[in-house]
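pasting input
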Amino acid sequence: MTFEVCNEPGCEKTAVFSSNYCFKHSDNKEEISQSARTFIKENSIIKNLNFSGIELNNIDFSSKKILFSRFSHSSLQNCNFDKTDIISVFMDFSLLTNCSFKNSNIKLSVFGGSDFRKSIFEDTVLVFCNLLGANISDILFNNSDLSHSRFINSITTSILFYNCNLKKSVFNSIDFDKKSLKTSNCEDAIIVTYKKNNLKESEIIK
Amino acid sequence: MRVFTIINSETISNIYFITDDNQTEGVLIDPGSFAINVYNEIKNIGAMVTKIIITHNDFDKIKGIPVIKKIYDVEIFTHNSSEYDFKTTKVKHGDTIKIGNDTGVILETPIKSYDSISLKIANNLFVGDVLQTGGLSSIDKTGIPSKLELGVIKKHFINLPDNTIIYPENGPATTIEIEKKFNPFFKRVSNEL
C-alpha cells in the first residue's frame, strides 16, 4: 500500500487521514482524531486509509471490515474487534491492550512490536500474520487458527494455546515455554533457535 | 499504487499483484502455478496483468507462465534471461520498471539464489527469497548467517526508512523498523553501523 508522504520537509512518514502531514507534524491533531473516530463509527468498511499515530481508544470496530489500512504506532486500547475482518492491515507498534478479537478474521496483517496484554482471542482466525516482538503475555488463545503466523521474539509468558491450529506458526525457542503449546498441534509449529543477543563474529560463515 | 497478496495454494507462498490506484493494470510478482484461486482473485481485483517480475529462477515461481501468456499479453522481467524457455526482458541493478504512476527500481540481492532480485517501489520492497519476517532466506535456519547474507542487508536494506514495508516470498509482510528491532540478523548489522 502506498500513501502520500508527509509534506514536512525531510519527514519520511506518510500523511494520515484527512491531512497532508503525518500525525506528528499535523497542527490540528485533535481535529484529525475526532474526524477519524467519526469516520470509523459511521462506516462499516475502512479501506486504504492511514490512521498511524492517532489515538483511537474505546472504539467499537465489531463486524466492520478493515482492509489495506495502517494503524502503526496508534493507541487502540479497549477496542472491540469482535467479528471484524482485518485483512492486510498494519497495526505495528500499537497499543492493543484490553481489546477483544472474538470470532474475528485476521489475515496477512502486521502486529510487530504491539502490546496485546489482557486482550481476548477466542475462535479467532489469525493467519499469515506478523507478531514479531509483540507483547502477548497473560493471554489465552481459545480455539483459534494461528497457522503461518510468526511470534519470533514475542514476549510469551503466561500464555496458553488451547485447541489452536499452530501449523507452520513460528516461535522462538528461547523465549517460549513449550508447555503452553501442548493443548494444540505443537508438532506442526516451527520452533526456531535464534539467539536473543547479537551473534558473535565467530558464528558467521565466511 | 495498490498491493494485493494472493496465497499460492500449492506452495503456500506469496504472490503479489501490484496495480495502479484505479486498478486498471498490474504487475504480478512470482506468479507460481497460477492456480484457479489466483486467477479468480485477479479477476475480482479487475486489473489486467501487463507485466510479470520473477525474483529468482525457481520452478515453483514460473510454472504458470504458459497459462498466463495465453490469458494476458505480458512482458516478463528476469535477472537472467537465458535460463528460461520463454521470452523475457533482462533487468539488472538500478533498472526501472513503470507501474502505473510509480516507478520500481531493481536491486540485485543474491543470497539464496545467485539470480535473486528485489524490487523497490516507493516505500514498498519486494524481496522474493532474500528475506523472511524475523529471519533470513530460510526461517528454520539454525541462526548462522553467511557474510553474503549480512552484506546484502547492510548494502541494500538497513538504511531504508523505518516505515518501508517488506513483502517476502514466504511468510507475512513486515517493516524495516520491525526487522531492525526483532530480527537478530538485522540487529547485528544495525549495531555494526
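fyi The first strand of chain B starts at residue 2 and ends at 8.
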